[in-house]
Design a protein that fits this description.
Elements (H helix, E strand, L loop, with lengths): L1 H16 L67 H4 L53
This protein binds heme C (2 copies).
């Protein structure tokens, strides 16, 4: 009897493993940024984002929002230099007609940048008149 039970259990476990496939998931409609074009198609590039050459940041939407960057933002930020600070550091900002980095970004009254704020683009993103809305946004406040 015991032997029979073991055999039965063994057979059961075999069927369990021998893989009844889980029901196929419903197909997800994934659309790539390239749209409907096939991978081997050559399609015209998207319009380049337009950055105002000099402009004003779009009004902030909520308190504590890092203001958007109203100009191109490919200035080098690396271990050797932070070229954003060529214009936004406390000592250079007024000459460059730029807003000095916020008080929250510095550790003393001379404007020494806090290390946590070194990589500006972690929080500040450039604003651009993008031709193509990539993601729907229904943010409201
Ligand atoms: C050649 C000088 C220059 C450089 C380099 C520069 N900026 Fe600016 N930035 C300006 C000027 C001028 C303005 C417009 C005046 C203003 O609002 O500060 C501005 C505006 C901004 C603003 C909007 C400020 C506000 O309160 O509305 C942000 C944010 C900003 N810059 C971030 C950056 C970041 C991040 C970098 C590096 C990727 C950078 N900037 C590099 C000159 C510069
Ligand atoms: C950790 C996120 C973060 C990083 C990193 C950061 N910022 Fe900011 N920044 C903010 C926030 C949030 C504000 C708005 C609140 C405030 O004034 O503190 C702001 C405000 C500013 C302002 C507007 C100041 C004003 O008086 O209106 C400027 C200019 C600016 N940042 C430039 C920079 C530059 C340049 C860097 C890199 C050296 C940088 N930020 C790094 C979050 C960040």
């Amino acid at each position: 009897m015991k032997k029979l039970m073991t055999m039965a259990l063994f057979a059961l476990s075999l069927t369990a493993c021998s893989g009844q496939q889980p029901p196929a998931a419903a197909p997800v409609n994934v659309k790539s940024l390239a749209g409907d074009s096939r991978i081997e198609d050559i399609r015209p590039a998207d319009a380049m984002p337009q950055y105002p050459s000099r402009g004003k940041a779009i009004v902030r939407d909520f308190q504590e929002q890092p203001p958007l960057i109203p100009h191109k933002a490919d200035y080098a930020i690396n271990a050797d230099k932070n070229t954003c600070m060529n214009c936004h550091s406390w000592d250079k900002a007024s000459r460059m007609k730029a807003t000095p980095v916020a008080k929250s970004h510095v550790i003393d009254d001379k404007g020494t940048l806090n290390g946590a704020n070194y990589f500006c683009s972690l929080c500040h993103v450039p604003q651009a008149d993008n031709k193509q809305a990539i993601v729907e946004n229904e943010f409201s406040h």
